[in-house]
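Supplementary Methods. Inverse-folding protocol.

Structures were first reduced to a discrete structure-token string of length 234. This string, shown here, constituted the complete conditioning input.
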């Protein structure tokens, strides 16, 4: 009885999927499941179809069919669905359908469930990809706006800036004062080096030198006289 049900189901599937179904053997065939997905942009390609391979055990539909999933040979990489990685997830989505339909023809229902599950998985990944793009775009926009608006001023940042500015201003004033004193000292030294004899005399420097010399001579004479007097008195 199982074989009769298998043949009957296979004939029904032929009428539903005339271009998508391919026989592998009397008890095995492959159905190409097209996915209807809206591309995110012009560079986003259409997803490849999923090949669902069905093999009837002798007692099917009393027991589950053997199922496998693949992409067509030489399929370009599709970023939102990797059949090698996603096969367990998609097959797991079919398990409840198999359990609910044991004893009945179930392949059409399995094809519909596989299509819905794959499209949902792709849509979730498209949404995640778009969300990441939006976050990156928002960060880029925020960074661009920061160039025009600068950093927001808070009370703490203003007080810190003012303290730093005052310190810099005081250091600048001290540096200028030291430079002025150094310049004034250099000018005085240079001016004294250029004084003529007349200028030295007019400023009292010549007289001061002569007076000093006379005082030294007088001191010397007075000293000699004092020593001589001591000798006479002695």
């Amino acid at each position: 009885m199982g074989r009769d049900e298998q043949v009957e189901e296979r004939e029904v599937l032929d009428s539903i999927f005339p271009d998508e179904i391919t026989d592998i053997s009397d008890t095995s065939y492959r159905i190409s499941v097209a996915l209807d997905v809206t591309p995110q942009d012009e560079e986003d390609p259409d997803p490849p179809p999923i090949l669902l391979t069905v093999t009837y055990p002798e007692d099917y539909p009393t027991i589950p069919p053997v199922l496998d999933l693949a992409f067509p040979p030489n399929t370009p990489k599709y970023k939102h669905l990797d059949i090698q990685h996603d096969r367990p997830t998609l097959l797991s989505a079919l398990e409840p359908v198999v359990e609910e339909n044991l004893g009945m023809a179930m392949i059409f229902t399995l094809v519909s469930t596989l299509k819905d599950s794959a499209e949902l998985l792709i849509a979730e990944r498209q949404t995640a990809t778009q969300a990441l793009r939006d976050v990156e775009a928002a960060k880029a926009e925020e960074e661009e706006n920061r160039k025009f608006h600068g950093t927001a001023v808070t009370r703490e940042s203003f007080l810190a800036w003012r303290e730093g500015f005052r310190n810099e201003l005081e250091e600048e004033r001290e540096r200028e004062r030291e430079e002025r004193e150094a310049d004034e000292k250099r000018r005085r030294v240079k001016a004294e080096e250029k004084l003529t004899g007349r200028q030295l005399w007019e400023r009292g420097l010549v007289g001061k030198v002569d007076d000093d010399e006379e005082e030294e001579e007088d001191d010397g004479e007075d000293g000699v006289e004092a020593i001589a007097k001591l000798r006479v008195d002695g």
